[in-house]
Amino acid sequence: MAYKNRGANAYRNVDVSSAVPYADSVQLIQMLFDGLMASLADAEGHFDRNDIKGKNDCIGRATKIILGLQSALDFEKGEELATNLSELYDYCVRRLLKANIRNDVEGIQEVKFLMSEIKDAWSLVPQLLDRDVNVSLAS
C-alpha cells in the first residue's frame, strides 16, 4: 500500500493525468513513463524549432517525472534493482540539465533511449503479475 501511495504522490506532483485515483501502482508508473516519453519527444521538437522556452518547459517536466519515478522506488523490497534505477535516474536528470544548458539534443535522445528501455520493461509487469497469480492459484 505504501508503494501505491508513493506512486500516486509522485504522479500528482507532475500533473500528468486526472486518472490517478483509479490506477494501480503499475499503471501509475506506466503513465509516468508515457508522460516522460511525450515530454522528451516534445523537447526534441522544440530544439528543432529553436524554441528555448518550450525546450526548457519540456525538459523541466521530464526532470520532474524522473524525480517522481525515483521517489516511487521501494529500496526495502527492490534492494539492488531500486539502487540501480535510482542511479540511472540521477544520471538522466544530470544529462537533461547538461543538454538544456548546452543546447545538446543528443542528451535528450540519450535519456529518451535509456528511459524507453525501462518503460518497455514496465510494460511487461502486468503479464508477469498475471502469470504469478495464475501459478499460485494452481498450486
Brief summary:
The chain is an all-alpha fold. 86% of the residues lie in helices and 0% in strands. The protein has helices at residues 2-14, 25-48, 52-71, 75-102, 105-138.
Overall strand count: 0
Which architecture name does CATH use? Up-down Bundle
The third-level CATH topology is: Four Helix Bundle (Hemerythrin (Met), subunit A)
Question: What fraction strand?
Answer: under 5%
Radius of gyration: 16 Å
Q: What is the overall shape?
A: elongated
Number of helices: 5
Number of domains: 1
**Helix amount, in percent?**
over 70%
CATH superfamily: Flagellar protein FliS
Strand count, sense and barrel status of the largest sheet are:
none
Low-confidence stretches: 15-22
In the CATH scheme, the class would be Mainly Alpha
* Quaternary class: single chain
User: What is the terminal separation in angstroms?
Assistant: 25 Å
Q: N-to-C SSE series?
A: HHHHH
* Structural class computed from helices and strand pairing: mainly alpha
Overall average residue pLDDT? 83
